[in-house]
Amino acid sequence: MIRLILEAVAILHLGPGIAFALLAFGCDGDLAFLRDTCARSGLSAFFSLTAWAWLALLLGWGAMLLLRRRRESAEASPAAE
Question: Membrane-crossing residues (predicted)?
């Protein structure tokens, strides 16, 4: 249970952190790779990037959870011969 809580808190805090890093380093000068996002207002861009970061983190967390369950079920079942 504590592991689930820590993972959820990590996802909630990493989403805005990733969004801030993308805005801080992705909107620099002529080489801005987030041109469309940088053109919007700062708060709107931050909310949008936070939502996308949360989505990516949740998808990664879900994949990790599925792999963990598969490994646990493989260890629990006897090897087929």
Answer: 45-67
